Queue: 4 jobs
Job 1
Amino acid sequence: MPLTTAHDDATARAAGEPQVDATAAPAPTAAPWMQLFGPYVVQSSVVSTVAYYPYAALLDVRLKNGACYRYFDVPMPTCAAFLAAASKGRFFNAQIKDRFRFRRV
């Protein structure tokens, strides 16, 4: 953003242009790895919600029994297939559970 003079500021105010405080700190943004897809509530008798952190390849899965697991190094296509699966529980058990490192959270 170019610096403006007092005259330029007065002209901008008179024209109704939005004012920007050049001394204000920039708004904080989330770290890229914290950007999240979801959480998505899914139709399943086993899985309750699914959330995915694409920049870190983390998949969070909350089960209907209340347990929540974080799976590491899950590729985005696997997450997309999980969300698109007709049976989330069957896909979870066959393609995610015991195939990726995880921890209970």
Job 2
Amino acid sequence: MTNYEMIKKFSKENMALTIMCPYEAGLMDSYRCDEKGNGVADGNCRKCILSWLGEDSTYSVGDRVIFLLFHRETIGVITKIIGNNAYIDAGAGELEIPLVDICEIIL
């Protein structure tokens, strides 16, 4: 079993202890754990990440996205989403990419 396969089997609680802040990863617009309203993450990161893991993904079909492929950033368009995978047209045919590998949406 690879480390990736092991991590995919984590419970949400264990995943919340393992992954980085969704805001710092570019997946949210602002810190949610900014309890004092000063733009600083000063709350409970585990609680915030656990909540975020339970939410629907913000990606949708037709989004232009940046993702990592062969250790470089690549741009493509999401053609469909099935489970935790996005199918992306990056110009060389359709690729199956885990949603967690998408870095950001291009507006």
Job 3
Amino acid sequence: MYAYDAYFLDCALRQKAPILTLDSRLKKQHKALEYRYWRYKMHVYTYSEARQKLAIILDQAENMGKVLIRRKDGRTFALTPEKAVASPLDVPTIKTNITTKEIVDIIREGRER
């Protein structure tokens, strides 16, 4: 594997991003590495650990995308953060020294053209 390919795969794994390539060898390597990478990185907490370290586990879930919690009976649960849904109309406000009347006048002037 070339250094560039290794760097490319490393970036994709760290960013949790898919890869787009026509190189079938690179695709196979990505699939194999992805499985090993997340299996290695994923930590499974016991229920008791999760209760004691909840803040740390929440931070880890946010950074890693998922954290596993295993109960005594062997059942495993995945803790994943919810994606924040923001409206495309949510834009930051700006402070100006313009009045509402001036804004309306500008809009009317633009419509008259």
Job 4
Amino acid sequence: MNLCNYRKVIPLKETIWTEECGKRKLVAYFFKELWSLNTIPRVTIIGWRVLLDRIPSKTNLAKREVEVANRLCELCKEEDEATRHLFFDCKISKNLCYKCDNSLREKDCLETNF
């Protein structure tokens, strides 16, 4: 698996999450790219759930009328725990991804097939 492939989905942050982006072709493009990644199914399914905003974040649980003590992100405690925040904006998760990415580079695992 080439771990750099997951970066194809990253433009989602600037497109899918914006109000004016209702273009079916763009959404179809991201789904096509996501499902064509050479990765384990678990990673693809999580990406799919992120695209659909179906991650059980505190904000999504509250929308479904599940009782949540508070909506703050458990990692940074600064913003509401929403899918976008967890995967793109939270400084703690960004830092974790950065460290994992660097760790994988150091171990020369970028072209390893799982």
